[in-house]
Amino acid sequence: MPYHEFDCSKVIPERKQHAVVKGEGEDLTSCLPKGYLNTIPGSISERGCAYCGAKHVIGTPMKDVIHISHGPVGCTYDTWQTKRYISDNNNFQLKYTFATDVKEKHIVFGAESLLKQNIHEAFDAFPEIKRMTIYQTCATALIGDDINAIADEVMAERPDVDIFVCNSPGFAGPSQSGGHHKINIAWLNQKVGTVEPEITSDYVINYVGEYNIQGDQEVMQDYFKRMGIQVLSTFTGNGSYDDLRAMHRAHLNVLECARSAEYICDELRARYGIPRLDIDGFGFKALGDSLRKIGLFFGIEDRAEAIIAAETARWKPELDWYAARLKGKRVCLWPGGSKLWHWANAIQEEMGVKVVSVYTKFGHQGDMEKGIARAGVGTLAIDDPNELEGQEALLRLKPDVIFTGKRPGEVAKKMRVPYLNAHAYHNGPYKGFEGWVRFARDIYNAVYSPMHQLSGVDISKDDYATDKGFVTRRMLSDASLPEADRASPLTGYTGKFDPIEALRAKTDADYPQFARKSSPQAAE
Questions:
Q1: What does the similarity note say (predicted)?
Q2: What does CATH list as the number for 204-307?
């Protein structure tokens, strides 16, 4: 078993089974790290919780909904505006977040009345919004607040509103993936089948596991429209609450992110007989194959081929330009969700880069299986790494760039490794033929950025003293200085005296507590 033990985690021997190096001739039965298990105490995991997976990943992209968290305000704040789930209703769901702001007294005496009050206040504040999702958090789940009963009471009092309840407290699973499952099944049980849609095409799909990061959904929807396909609902990027209630009338579920949304697809197949078709919107070949599969299902392959031919002719030359300049660059692929396997092979085959590491913080072993299968020999695969393990991996692998989230990305920047935001993108969308070229451009800009290269220059031994600028205008323009030596109020410096010596004199004379021991004043 090719386990990899991090030096920083030797005190936690269980962590050894959560990282492997893919060896020559290894099959997936011997090179899979353990995954989707409870966090090992002491490992300082950076995972999101089940509540985060439900609200932040899947619920919040619904555009015409008041998203309210029943719990402490910190839970809501942590899941607000951290991804670019844009929408065509002026981004209502990004601008506003709602919380009942539970305090200690509510934990003691209950918070159901507080919840009801907040629901009415939210609807009153935004009378044009008639739909709401309530998310359970750890605190209110532990005290047993009956959110469903409160929602029913409000809907009886306000017949024009509709409320969805998501009971997915943070402890509902080992990671945020547990929350994905909870909200998938809850939505199907509570809301699917409660609205009948208008069917306008012979080819009707639900686009599932798509969250419209910087417009991804709009790119794919354009392809579907050009093929004559009606997108009944998008689960859940730029998705309308009522459209998602009509998912049961689609002819096909087109699934993008299997990790977050395969649950609802499988249940729609079991309950309504709707087939599931997994696709991939990233990469020329993968996207082309996906459009062909959809075309084959509906018998409109010629429409798919026409789109593929036109888009490839337009964008392939630009992709080739970037690929020639990215060939051999080393990449750590540390994203979230399905990008682990969507990108692993495509960026190597179509951009020429070499993937040296893959990781997931919340994925299952099936996710890692697909990711490792598409990576090369020597790839370091890590489940749920902490910050120290990530730093150790960067020092060992010496990548040219990493694709990850903002939190580990900022750490990488401090280690002089450029990163691209794999969760919310730098300059998306990245899906589609043009989007894939845009992704290559962002990689190129990260690798060859002059500013980033300057950040690695060590100036600590430069001849020019870099502390000359740290003299305040107040000290330089102080009335105690000779008039000729006072700083100009516009420039802050006259050039007629040494600013460092002026600072030292002022500090030693007037602030003895800061005086240097070697100064005459200190010696006296």
A1: Belongs to the NifD/NifK/NifE/NifN family.
A2: 3.40.50.1980
Closest C-alpha to 111, from 143, 135, 148:
143
Would you call 340 helix, strand, or coil by DSSP?
Answer: helix
Task: Parse the chain into domains and list their residue ranges.
Answer: 7-45+315-455, 50-190, 204-307, 473-523
- What is the phi-psi region of residue 150: left when phi exceeds 0, alpha when psi lies from -120 to 50, beta otherwise? alpha
Rg (CA), the chain: 28
H/E stretch holding 482 reads none
Is the CA virtual torsion 373, 281, 216, 182 positive or negative?
negative
Phi, psi of 357 (to 5 degrees): -160, 145
CATH architecture of 50-190: 3-Layer(aba) Sandwich (3.40)
Residue 400 and residue 333 in contact, taking contact as beta carbons nearer than 8 Å: no
> Which among 136, 137, 129 has a CA at the least distance from the CA of 92?
129
Domains 7-45+315-455 and 204-307 share a fold: yes
For the domain bounded by 7-45+315-455, which CATH number is listed?
A: 3.40.50.1980
What are the two backbone dihedrals, phi and then psi, of residue 469, each rounded to the nearest 5 degrees? -80, -10
Q: Tell me, what's the pLDDT at 456?
A: 73
More confident residue, 60 or 471: 60
| Chain segment 140-169, per-residue pLDDT in tens | 999 999 999 999 999 999 999 999 999 999
Q: How far apart are CA 119 and CA 148, in angstroms?
A: 13
Return the structure tokens found at 94. Answer: 């990004």
Judged by DSSP in three states, 87 sits in coil
Tokens of 100: 């009942």
Give the span between the Cα atoms of 388 and 167, in whole angstroms: 33
pTM: predicted TM-score of the whole model, two decimal places: 0.86
